[in-house]
């Protein structure tokens, strides 16, 4: 990083104007396509008109000391510090207070401290907000601006705040789960250093996952896959909690963000082709009456309803399966009494189930990927009342129509005027239920790769979570 920032020898004076001139000269001398951090440092000083931000002719400003301290405290926020770079920052700042320096030496020290501290803080701010890794590749994140967040703008604003450290740390996510997990982690650091060392990378991995999430809405539904729960959250308060069944390890539920746009009561079930060919076709070969016995209807490619008992199922292959199977709206329907729909590329949804005893099991990774919900009609009533909160009489009419559909056994679509955000996340460590960390099973085996990427080569393999 030092070479990328173009740190060269000192000039012959140490006034703010000459520090600015030296900063301008060194930053403008960087070639195009220079390292990304250096490009963002250029942007920072260009916006500051190349004036020194962290130093004066008599030493470092208070914000410089605070910034260096924040860099050292990165592990408190679930981040892996750049130890060598932080040591260079500390030495550069300390050198400003050394007596007997000639003006040329002091100028060089000031320029060096300015550039190193700015680079370190831009990276820290980006990592506090976005984490250290990209979700799609587990490669290091960028500190460049995107459509949502600009570390340069944030640092420029923070330098003018009376409480510099607080403003830098305010770049972090503000979701309920992030705030609670971070608080539990910092309490553990203060009270049990042995446990903290053991759990460090697991906590870091889950803070990283929460940093990947978009800014939370004021009210939303959130499914945590390893916890087997769905919560309705408004700001920092959990309004409802439901048990769920999630995908089995062989058919995992994907992480996603979407909005529940409508739900359907007494739904028909269009059996996915994968289930029809992998699970139902073998049963049909053994028992052609399987469909009738379970209220399924068979359709051919022209929409006709053939008699499944007259089909030679042994000659039908999974690769060329020419049928569509639907299940009528009954109490035994695989979707139960209600299904909640939200757009997503995985074609999963949230639904009831007739197999309600499974919610008493401690481990509920059992589905084909969709999310089965305990007491789903309670969620349906909540959504209708929330959606029409300004018109309670209209909301009540919608609730009554919903129950008429359920008891009458006919399908009804109930759209939401204000689609409800839903997040499906994967947290194996959280503090959503209390002040201490709760560890959950890594049911899909996703922790190891993430923790390894976060550690890099800086930590031994026997540290937490291995």
TrEMBL record:
Alphabetical keyword list: Cell shape, Cell wall biogenesis/degradation, Peptidoglycan synthesis, Transferase
Pathway: Cell wall biogenesis; peptidoglycan biosynthesis
Catalytic machinery residues: 351, 370
One biological process term in Gene Ontology: cell wall organization
Transmembrane intervals: none
Single GO MF descriptor: transferase activity
InterPro entries: LD-transpeptidase_YkuD-like, LD_TPept_cat_dom, LD_TPept_scaffold_dom, Transpep_catalytic_dom
Gene3D superfamilies according to UniProt: L,D-transpeptidase catalytic domain-like
Keyword ATP-binding appears in the UniProt entry: no
Domain L,D-TPase catalytic: 219-402
UniProt xrefs under PROSITE patterns: LD_TPASE
Family membership noted in the UniProt record: Belongs to the YkuD family.
Protein name: L,D-TPase catalytic domain-containing protein
């Amino acid at each position: 990083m030092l070479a990328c920032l173009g740190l060269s020898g000192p000039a012959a004076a140490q006034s703010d104007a000459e520090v600015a001139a030296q900063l301008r000269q060194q930053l403008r001398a960087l070639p195009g396509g220079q390292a990304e951090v250096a490009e963002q440092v250029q942007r920072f000083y260009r916006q500051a008109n190349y004036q020194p931000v962290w130093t004066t002719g008599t030493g470092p400003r208070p914000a410089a000391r605070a910034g260096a301290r924040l860099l050292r405290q990165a592990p408190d926020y679930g981040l892996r510090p750049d130890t060598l770079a932080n040591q260079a920052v500390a030495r550069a700042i300390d050198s400003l207070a050394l007596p007997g320096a000639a003006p040329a030496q002091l100028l060089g020290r000031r320029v060096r401290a300015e550039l190193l501290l700015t680079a370190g803080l831009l990276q820290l701010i980006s990592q506090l907000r976005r984490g250290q890794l990209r979700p799609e590749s587990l490669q290091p994140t960028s500190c460049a601006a995107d459509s949502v967040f600009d570390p340069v703008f944030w640092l420029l604003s923070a330098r003018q705040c009376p409480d510099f450290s607080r403003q830098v740390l305010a770049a972090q996510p503000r979701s309920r789960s992030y705030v609670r997990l971070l608080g539990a982690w910092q309490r553990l650091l203060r009270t049990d250093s042995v446990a903290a060392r053991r759990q460090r990378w697991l906590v870091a991995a889950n803070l990283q996952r929460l940093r990947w999430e978009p800014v939370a809405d004021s009210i939303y539904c959130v499914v945590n896959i390893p916890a087997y729960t769905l919560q309705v959250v408004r700001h920092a308060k959990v309004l409802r909690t439901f048990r769920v069944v999630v995908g089995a390890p062989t058919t995992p539920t994907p992480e996603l963000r979407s909005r529940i746009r409508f739900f359907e009561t007494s739904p028909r079930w269009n059996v996915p082709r994968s289930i029809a060919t992998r699970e139902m076709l073998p049963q049909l070969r053994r028992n052609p009456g399987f469909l009738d016995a379970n209220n399924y209807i068979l359709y051919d490619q022209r929409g006709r309803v053939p008699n499944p008992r007259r089909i030679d199922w042994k000659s039908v292959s999974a690769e060329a399966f020419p049928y569509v199977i639907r299940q009528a709206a009954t109490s035994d329907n695989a979707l139960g009494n209600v299904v909640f729909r939200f757009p997503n590329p995985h074609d999963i949804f949230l639904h009831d189930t007739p197999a309600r005893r499974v919610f008493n099991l401690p481990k509920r990774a059992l589905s084909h990927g969709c999310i089965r919900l305990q007491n789903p009609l309670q969620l349906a009533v909540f959504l209708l009342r929330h959606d029409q909160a300004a018109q309670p009489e209209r909301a009540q009419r919608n609730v009554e129509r919903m129950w008429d559909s359920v008891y009458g056994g006919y399908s009804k679509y109930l759209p939401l005027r204000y689609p409800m955000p839903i997040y499906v996340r994967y947290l194996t460590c959280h503090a959503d239920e209390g002040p201490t960390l709760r560890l959950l099973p890594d049911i899909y085996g996703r922790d190891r790769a993430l923790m390894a990427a976060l550690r890099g080569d800086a930590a031994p393999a026997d540290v937490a979570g291995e």
